[in-house]
Amino acid sequence: MQIAVAGATGFVGRRLVEALAGEHKVIALARRAPDFLNATNQAVDVGNYEEALRALEGCDAAYYLIHSLDVGDFRARDLDLAKTFGAAAKAAGVKRIVYLGGLGEDPTSDHLLSRQEVGAALGAKGVPVVELRAAVIIGAGSVSYEMLRYLTERLPFMVCPRWVRTAIEPIALSDVLLYLEKSLSVEPGIYEVGCGEVTTYRDMISIYARERGLGPTVIVDIPLLTPRLSSHWVDFVTPVDTKVSHSLIESLVTEVTVRDPNKTKDAFAIIPMPIAQAIREALDNQLITAEATVMDRESGLLDGIYTERIEIPIDEALESELNDDFDRIGGDLDWYGLDSAWRIRMWIGRLFGERWRLRRPEAVEPDAAVDWWRVVERSPNELVLRAEGWFFGEGWLGWRVRNGVLVQVGILRPKGVVGFLYWKILQPVHRKVFRLQAEHRLVRARRRIKIGQ
């Protein structure tokens, strides 16, 4: 089956393309051409009828995962885009559209109203539509989940508005993907999807804290704190895009729960995972992804993970010696450079219960214990380490030598407010020290070449 995914580079879209590509021919559509290896990538403006028509020709089904919360009048824009896409799908002979919308009965916020208007507009020209309505999606990258994460990680004490007690029914990202995949074969219509547990944002904060291994969060409700006022409070605490977060917060006064679970259960036969398991899965999947992408990450903050990346041009004659030196790691602080800085870091860690010790393995290979690290990757010209026993969070450190460039990457997923403060306080120092450590790799390589001569 040939399937188009509009919004392929978004939070859900990217994962859906990867899930579908094994069994279908996938056409990945986005404003800028995506970079999937197992799909046909196209840059498309779905608001342009001709472009959308060309992109959808030959497709049996199309997923519509586009929302414009980051623009001013997003409600009008989303409606126009949906009308154009629906008309183009009809003309192209698309047999069904699958749309991920939002829960909420008689919503009052522009965000939720827009979600439901889009579902109707997509089918206005007669293409059958499967509309899945969901609330908070639990997974790294979901704006609602990221708000939950940052608030819980950074604030051991919270003064919260009344919307934290609004009833919500979240759902795990992996379950959303299952529903989306099965939407290719169910009867068209509206289906409400959730985890089967009705909770509140307040309770989700407590569940997240427990699953993350944080201390209990003290929450004090302030009923007079309106959604508009509380949105500024969220701006101060979290780095989430303000236009998006403000629209989402205004919708949090509406209960978003599944009212007709039997219709969905009968059509899909999916048993969704409970909230605690969904949060645990999101945390675990984020670690797996972080570890697999250490050397590809850019400097900055992304979904709760800080990255520092240094690239230094080198003489290609040094590459072989730099690679050989990776196998000499372990048992000596001089290998890292800045011995005194590492000793200070070890002393600080001891105050929080860390017990770092120097260890040298028989061979530097995956899963070998090296000092306070575990080897994740040791391939030609590359070494990646995962920290063990860090109080401040989960960390990785990696090096790659390729095409005349030495790349050094360090990443940290802070744990709680102490981990957050650790990174923020030391961030200016980290940047300077990190470059000096990368340059130390070159000093060692040149030294050994000189000795060899």
From TrEMBL:
Residues 7-122 form the NAD(P)-binding domain. Signal peptide: none annotated. InterPro entries: DUF2867, NAD(P)-bd_dom, NAD(P)-bd_dom_sf. This is Unannotated protein. It comes from freshwater metagenome.
